[in-house]
Amino acid sequence: MATNLRPSWIVKLHKSLDRLRQREDQLSLVLSLVIGALVGLVVVAFIVLTGRLAARMYPPGGSGWRRILVPVLGSLSTGYLLSRYFPFARGSGIPQTKFALFINDGRIQFRTVLGKFFCCSASLASGIALGREGPSVQVGAGIASVVARSLGLPPKLVKALVPAGCAAALAAAFNTPIAAVLFSLEEIMGDLHAEVLGSVVLSSATAWMVLHLVLGDDPLFHVSGYQLVHTSEFAVYAVLGLVGGLGSVCFVKLLLGLRGWFMRLPKWTVWFQPVAGGLTVGVMGYFVPEVLGVGYNHVEKVLNGDIVLKLVVLFAVLKIVATAVCYASGNAGGIFGPALFIGAMMGGAVGGVAHALFPGSTAGPGAYALVGMGTAFAGIVRTPLTSVIMIFEITRDYTIIVPLMISNLIAFFISQKLQPQPIYEALASQEGVHLPTAHSRANAERLQVHQAMRSPPAVLSPDLLISAAHLQVKDGALDAWPVIDAGGLCGMVRNSDLSQAASGGEPEMKVAELLGTGAGFGHSTARELPHVHPDHSLSLALERMGSSGLKVLPVVSRANVRQLIGVIALDDILDAYGVTNSRDRLPPPNG
After folding, report:
1. What does 17-42 look like in DSSP terms, one character per residue?
2. Where are the alpha helices (DSSP H) in 175-268?
3. So what's the pLDDT on residue 588?
4. Mean pLDDT, the chain, as a whole number?
5. Which pLDDT tens digit goes with each residue over 159-205?
C-alpha cells in the first residue's frame, strides 16, 4: 500500500511545484520563507561554531604564545584552502555578492558557500581581526542562489531571491531584522524602492525568528540607558562626526593601499599572503589581547564606560591597522564588526575628553561610544540610513537617535568628499570588476548601451605598422578603432592619427606608439581610457564622448575591463534616439 501512495504523493508534489512556478509572486514568497529559515539556521551554526572554536583555541589562562601562534597557523591553513579550492571566498563577501547579482545572473556556487563558511569560521576563531557579518551575507546569498537554481528558476527570479538571502543572513548575524532589510536595499540593490522588498522583509523576519528560537532574545550589546544631558552636547556629537569621518577615511585608504600592494606581489605568493595578517594581529595580540578577533566583549565594556581613555585610543589605532592588514592580505572575514569596534573606541575617546572638560553638561563616554559605532559604520560602509537603524536595533536604545543622525551625517559627508569611491566599489575595481554605481542603476530603465552597440568591424594590433593599419581601416565607417593585444583592449586610435602618421613619413611606426601615455589601459584598469559598459545609459555614453573627444567608445565587460564586447559610435546613439535613419546593425551579444 505504501508503494502505491509514494508515487501519487510525488506526482501531486510535482504538480504543485509546476503550478507554483506559473505564479512567480507566490513562488517568491514561499521561497523567501524557506530561504529565511535555511539561512537563519546556517548563520546560527556559524555563530556557535566560531564561538566554540575560539574557546578551544584561547582557553582561559592560556599561554601568551598562543596569541601569536594560533593566528599565524590559522591564516596559513585558510590561506592555502582559499587559494587552492575556494578563490571566491576571500574577503568580506559583499563585493562578490554584488558581482553575482549584477554581472553573473545571481549565480553563486555551493562550493563557494561551503568555503566561506568553514574558512571564515577558522579565521575568526583563530583571532583574525575581521567580522562574521559580511561573510554571512555572502553565505546567505549563496544559499538563496543554490535553492533557486536547483528548482530551475529563470535568472530573473534567482536575482530577485539573492537580496532575500542577504537580508536573512544579516538579520541573524546582527539580530537586526529592520537594518538587514535596509542594508539589502540600500547597499546590495542600491534602491530603497526595489521590487524585491516583500521577499526581503519576509526572509529577514523568518531568519530573525529562527535566531530567537535557537539562541534566545538577547541583544548583541547590553548598554545602560543614556540620554541627552544638555543641548550643548550636539556640538560634541558634531565633533565626533568629524573624528569618525576622518578615522573612517584613514581606515579605508589604508586598507585599499595595502590591498593594492599585496595584489602586485607575484601570484605564487597568494596562498601565503594571509599569514601577514595573522602575524600582525598575533604580535599585537601578544601585548594587547583586545585586538584579537572581533572584540564585541570589549565594545560592550566601552559602551558601559568600563575602559579608560588611553586604552580606547590605543585600541582604535591598533584595530585600524590590524583589520586593514588582515583584510588586505586576503583572509576570510568582513569589516562590519571591526567598524563597530573602531567606532566605539573613537566615540569613547571623544566622550572621555568631553566629559573630563565639561562633566556637568555631557553624558559619560559610553553614550559617545554608542554613537561612534554608527558613525564609523556610516563613514566606512557608506550606508547612513542602515547605520542609524542598526545601532538602534543592536542596543535597543532610542534615546540618542538624534545625536546619532547628526554624527552619522557629518561622517558620511566627510568620507564621501575625501574618499569618493565607496569601499566595496573600490575593492571590486582593484579586481578589475566595475560594479554598477547607484547612478547607473537609477538610469537602468533608460536606453542602454547594449541596445545600440555594434560588434567592431576591425581591430588593430599594437605591433601592426602604421602603413598596414591605415590601409586596413581607411575605408571603414568608424572614427576610431580598438587596439587589442594578448591581454585584451589596450587603447583606441583615431583615423586622423593614422592618416597623419602615414602621410607624415612615419609608415614604419607601430600602432602602439600612437597610443601614447594616458591613451590606453594600464595594468588592467580603465581609468585612462574613456569607455562604457553594456548597462550604461546612452546619455552617459554621450557625456563621455563629449569629454574625451572620441566619437567611438569601446564597450567593455564589468567583470574584465580589458574584454572588448563591442563599440558604440555617435551615429549609433543618434539612431537609437530616432535622430537619424535606421540602418542594419549587427545584433548585440545574447540577442
Report:
1. HHHHHH-HHHHHHHHHHHHHHHHHHH
2. 177-183, 197-215, 233-263
3. 45
4. 85
5. 989 999 999 999 999 888 999 999 998 888 877 666 788 889 999 99
By percentage, how much of the chain surpasses pLDDT 90?
A: 42
pTM: 0.79
Alpha-carbon distance 61 to 260, whole Å?
39
Rounded Cα–Cα distance for residues 478 and 460 (Å): 13
Q: At residue 55, what is the residue type?
A: A
- To which residue does cell 584595530 refer? 319
User: Residue 589 CB: number of other CB atoms within 10 A?
Assistant: 13
SS3 state at 482: strand
Side-chain half-sphere CA neighbours of 566 within 13 A: 19
Give the whole-angstrom CA distance, residue 160 versus residue 197. 10
The length of the chain in residues reads 591
- Which whole-number Å values give the CA distances from 509 to 476, 483, 497, 498, 521, in the listed order? 21, 15, 12, 10, 20
Whether the Cβ atoms of residue 84 and residue 270 lie closer than 8 Å to each other? no
- Helices 365-380, 384-395: crossing angle, 10 deg rounding: 140
pLDDT digits (tens, 9 = 90+) for 474-507: 777 788 889 988 888 888 888 888 888 878 766 6
Contacts of 351 (CB under 8 A, 6+ apart): 236, 240, 362, 363, 364, 365, 366, 367, 368, 369, 372
Q: How far is 270 from 255, CA to CA, in rounded Å?
A: 17
Residue 45 to residues 39, 117, 132, 394: CA-CA distances in angstroms?
10, 10, 12, 20
- End-to-end CA, the chain: 52
Q: Residue 323 and residue 341: Cα distance in Å, rounded?
A: 11
DSSP, collapsed to helix, strand or coil, labels residue 569 as strand
Q: How many CB atoms lie within 10 A of CB 26?
A: 12
**β-pair partners for 569:** 552
The one-character DSSP state at 64 is T
Q: Which residues contact 9 (CB under 8 A, 6 or more apart)?
A: none
Report the 3 state secondary structure along 140-176: HHHHHHHHHHHCCCCHHHHHHHHHHHHHHHHHHHHCC
The per-residue pLDDT for 441 is 61
Closest CA to 159 of 95, 90, 103, 207: 103
Contact 139, 334 (CB under 8 A): no
Which residues partner with 489 through β-bridges? 484
Please check whether residue 299 is in contact with residue 222, taking contact to mean a CB–CB distance below 8 angstroms. no
546 half-sphere exposure, CB direction, 13 A CA radius: 7
Residues facing residue 180 across a β-bridge: none
**What single letter denotes the amino acid at residue 547?**
S
Q: What φ, ψ does residue 37 adopt, rounded to 5°?
A: -65, -45
Q: C-alpha grid cell for residue 72?
A: 599565524
H/E element holding 564? strand 564-569
C-alpha to C-alpha distance for 34 and 37, rounded to whole angstroms: 5
CA proximity to 24, closest of 142, 141, 160: 160
Q: 221-272 pLDDT, tens per residue?
A: 777 777 777 888 899 999 999 999 999 999 999 999 999 999 999 999 999 9
Residue 350: CA atoms inside 13 Å, Cβ hemisphere, count? 27
| Contact indicator for 390, 204 with CB cutoff of 8 Å | no
Give yes or no for a contact between 372 and 316, defined as CB atoms under 8 angstroms apart: no
Q: What whole-number distance in Å separates Cα of residue 227 and Cα of residue 564? A: 58
Q: Are 321 and 363 in contact (CB under 8 A)?
A: no
